[in-house]
Design goal:
Blueprint lengths: L1 E3 L6 E4 L5 H12 L4 E5 L5 H12 L3 E4 L3 E5 L12 E2 L4 H12 L4 E5 L10 H9 L3 E4 H4 L1 E7 L7 E4 L5 H10 L7 E4 L7 H8 L4 E4 L2 E4 L9 E4 L4 H13 L4 E8 L6 H9 L2 E10 L2 E9 L8 E2 L4 H4 L3 H8 L5 E4 L12 H11 L4 E4 L2 E5 L7 E3 L5 H10 L7 E3 L12 H8 L2
Parallel strand pairs: 2-15, 3-14, 6-7, 10-11, 18-19, 22-23
Antiparallel strand pairs: 1-23, 3-5, 4-5, 7-9, 8-9, 11-13, 12-13, 15-17, 16-17, 19-21, 20-21
Helix pairs in contact: 1-2, 1-7, 3-6, 4-6, 8-11, 8-13, 11-13
The structure holds shikimate-3-phosphate.
């Protein structure tokens, strides 16, 4: 058990690590591009480094001097890997890379850690099979390890996705590069659109019409470019909430991505009465970016969060639950059943940890209710092997009455290896 000992208010200016979604995509799209890509501010976390390692194993020449990454794109067709591709904890890696492997006329196997091997892959296997690839996995093709026997060309697809999932949408769009037939994905609500934006930047014809994304005639990636990855709003969220709940805090988080498919957390902060402002909004590498100033907010109000906003803040729900403990009233989150199949069952993880800390919380199949204005007692919590759960409860410890003990913080390295030192830096 790790004894969490942090106290104090948060002050100062920090650039949190770069965006995980964009870092993954810069390696994936840079690898199947016919040209050279330099990636600045790549997120050097376990998940993204696993994507980088996978593309090296697929024959792509990637230079990494730990400051810059230079990808000598191989074009769409890669090399059959000599071994199983192990992407660790990363759901984005396994699901997006599967789309690219589905169009390769060779055999490959993707696996991950014990958490990833329990996450559902039928959501991508079903459409990829419709496109003509052979996808095998444990329990009738549902769970990793996944075996992929690709095909070229693949069939087209007009897919009505049952979920608002950027991983599903991106997987299909990437597989769609390996056919000339119609490729269309319609989602029930808009999920993050980094794949669409980046494919366009590489010269691919992508059309967006409401909730439908389709590929046009040109499906070849051909560009020399530099991608400057902005700071991740999902990582910034931990300190935004920390500053809002710890008296005396005032911080500025720099270069944070403000893509509208990612800013649900800001809408929630506004409605709950968090004091914040956005400074110096600008566009970097095709994505909106800005600095966010947040200060202690003594009059937080509970709200209900459900419907189309859920995919816009799906990764921030663990830390929103900590914010909710300090708001006046009951915060209710619904339509978030997807949380059950994230890095952990996040509904269960949040509810059981909050209960252990003395918070009144009620679990629903698709969310939970948190009674606000609650004192966080001390106690034992678990990270459940899930980076965002561990970081959320480290932040909770800043306002806990007694010591919090947590079993696992190593998992934080999947997205934010320097989280503890950044937290220490801000604590004054
Ligand atoms: C991601 C999409 C989301 C998100 C994940 C990253 C991506 O997952 O939760 O952390 O980079 O495409 P889903 O597509 O499963 O919602």
């Amino acid at each position: 058990m790790y004894e969490v000992k942090f106290k104090g208010s948060l002050k100062g200016t920090l650039r949190v690590p770069s965006d995980k979604s964009i870092s993954h995509r810069s390696i994936m799209l840079g690898s199947i591009n016919d040209g050279e890509v330099v990636v600045k501010n790549f997120l050097r976390s376990e998940d993204c480094l696993n994507t980088l390692k996978a593309f090296k194993a697929l024959g792509v020449n990637i230079e990494d001097n730990e400051t810059l990454i230079k990808i000598h794109g191989k074009g769409k067709f890669l090399k059959e890997p000599f071994d199983v591709l192990d992407v660790g904890n990363s759901g984005t890696s396994i699901r997006l890379i599967s789309g690219i492997l589905a169009g390769q006329p060779f055999y490959s196997v993707l696996t991950g850690d014990r958490y990833l091997r329990k996450r559902p892959m039928d959501r991508i296997a079903i459409p990829l099979r419709m496109m003509g690839a052979t996808i095998l996995g444990r329990e009738n093709g549902k769970y990793p390890p996944l075996t992929i026997i690709g095909k070229n060309p693949l069939n087209g697809i007009d897919y009505k996705s049952p979920k608002a999932s950027a991983q599903v949408k991106s997987c299909i769009l990437l597989a769609g590069l390996f056919t000339d037939e119609e490729v269309k994905v319609t989602e029930p609500a808009r999920s993050r659109d980094h794949t669409e934006r980046m494919l366009k930047a590489f010269g691919v014809d992508v059309e967006v019409d409401g909730l439908t994304v389709s590929l046009g005639k040109n499906r070849v990636l051909k560009a020399d470019m530099e991608i400057d990855v902005p700071a991740d709003i999902s990582s910034a969220a931990f300190f935004m909430v920390a500053a809002a709940i710890v008296p005396g805090s005032e911080i500025i988080l720099e270069d944070v991505i403000l893509n509208p498919t990612r800013t649900g957390i800001l809408d929630v902060m506004e409605k709950m009465g968090v004091n914040f402002e956005i400074i110096n909004k600008r566009v970097v590498s095709g994505e909106e970016v800005g600095n966010i100033k947040v200060s202690y907010s003594s009059e937080l109000k509970a709200i209900s969060i459900s419907g189309d906003i859920i995919p816009r803040l799906i990764d921030e729900i663990p830390i929103i639950s900590i914010l909710a403990t300090q708001a006046e009233g009951k915060t209710v989150i619904r339509n978030a059943a997807e949380l059950r199949v994230k890095e952990s069952d996040r509904i269960k993880s949040i509810v059981s940890n909050l209960k252990n800390l003395g918070i009144n919380v009620e679990e629903f199949e698709d969310g939970f209710m948190i009674q606000g204005k609650s004192k966080i007692a001390g106690g034992e919590v678990s990270g459940f092997g899930d980076h965002r759960i561990a970081m959320s409860f480290l932040i909770a410890s800043l306002i806990s009455e007694d010591t919090i003990y947590i079993d696992d913080i190593d998992c934080i390295a999947t997205s934010y290896p320097n989280f503890l030192s950044d937290l220490k830096f801000l604590l004054k």
